[in-house]
Design brief:
With about 70 residues, the protein is mostly helical. Helices cover about 85% and strands about 0% of the residues.
Length: about 70
């Protein structure tokens, strides 16, 4: 992605794109670009969720190790 966005912003943009497609408020010419952007946003969100899950698991493991000592 060219600009830095947050997960919340990515989800909001995805919701807007889905709404535009569902309401047929975009033309056929724009559809391809919207679908490409949606794919980028989905990739970004998936990566963010994966990295957050790994970080949380690492923190929890660290806490478990500390309490085991």
């Amino acid at each position: 992605m060219s600009k830095s966005i947050t997960y919340t912003q990515a989800i909001a943009e995805l919701e807007t794109i889905v709404s535009e497609i569902e309401n047929a408020s975009i033309g056929v010419d724009e559809l391809s670009e919207k679908v490409k952007r949606a794919a980028e946003l989905i990739r970004f969100c998936r990566n963010k969720l994966t990295s957050t899950e790994k970080e949380v698991n690492s923190i929890l493991k660290s806490i478990e190790e500390e309490s085991a000592e």
